[in-house]
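Marked as duplicate of an earlier ticket. Keeping the data here for the record.
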Amino acid sequence: MNYVNNATLIRRELLAKLSGLLLKKDFSAIDRVPLEMFPKNSQSVRCCIYKDRAMIRYRLMALLGYGLENEEDELKRLETYAEEAQERKKPEAPFLTVIDEACSSCVKVNYVVTDACQGCVARPCMMNCPKDAIEFINGKAHIKHDTCINCGICLKECPYHAIIYMPVPCEEACPVDAISKDQFGKEKIDFTKCIYCGKCMRSCPFGAIMERSQVTDLIKHLLSDKKTVAMVAPSIVGQFSASLGQMVSALKQLGFDEVLEVAEGAEVTTKKETAEWVERMEDGKSFMTTSCCPAWVETVEKHLPELKLYMSDTRSPMRYTGEIARKVCHGAVNVFIGPCIAKRQEAFKDDTVDLVMSIEELGALFIAAKIDVQKMEESQLKDISPESRGYAMSGGVANAVATEAKSDDLNVYQIDGLSKQSIKEIKRFPKKCPGNFVEVMSCEGGCIAGPSVISNPKLASRQLNKMLGR
């Protein structure tokens, strides 16, 4: 999964530009952004600068919180969308959208014969094809795609590596087959299957899949008299090359009235989940899985109902932090800040969290507000256990529960990243599970490697470990 590419940089630049205009309430200038990004006589990325400008416009629509699938008026100004967003009571689902004009209609066939084919006498590709889908024309192999079943045997048998596998990146990345082509060859997301893991968004080389941002909704509240509470996920450590205390100061300068660490809610999750595991083991249950990763929860609800009996009923740290925030600042707008798209879906169904802001969006806001996090003074932090702040990395939840349980009977097994293969493995757990406490993280490496991080996960992990004294 790419963490930095040109499509990502364009999205971040647009977020910063849009945030700056929204902070100044200069809605009319939003329509000029596509022209500024691709001025007259500039070099185009696609066929022409007019197509490039159109893509920028659609991306801005998504960043204003709108789904592109339901666009009714192509001449409607971005200024109008921005003004209408001011009246929005709450963010609208679904939280991913596909810009069909940006989708390149990636190849429908997976196996392709290249010019490296030598037309050899042995012809192992043709001889071993189970469907007779390979023929030779003018001494070169050709695949009959109406017959091919994409088994890949031809690729393995070719001695010249002349046959290559051509994936559709978003479809390849999706662990639950929730994205596929429509009748026009454009990708569409089936939200009855989607788990909001964000893997499709990060894998699309054309940036055609976008989050429906809530930055407009947040800025509206920051500029109003309404109090706001920032609920900061542990994974924010390492994202801005600054300490957690500096992050708290920066968030207050941005306009938040209160800043809470979601690690505080993680302490509640650890206690409740440990007690639940002990109770289930005493009742003779074979294993229990974690429940703090919202993409995993969506996976169970939509694709693995047989695992529901084994999943913990304990709520996520975000939920418990939201409850704390409601008591600390009654009537305020609670804003979760983290790297996870699935948290938008979780918050949508939760009455303790009002908005979700990604780390990318926070970075854009800091740029727009000219806040240098590294120059902030240190704010005093609460005394929270290292295990609770360690939730951000794979193994963090299991480590916290193990520390709390102090039991030799705890046998931890980790699923580090949801994929087609790992989901197949999980399906076998009701019959035979390799552990009695299963930690499941959608993102490889944990939340610190989520779809909306801005720092290399390895570097961020190093900084978090340093903070935790490891």
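See parent ticket for discussion. The CA atoms of residues 131 and 148 lie 7 Å apart.
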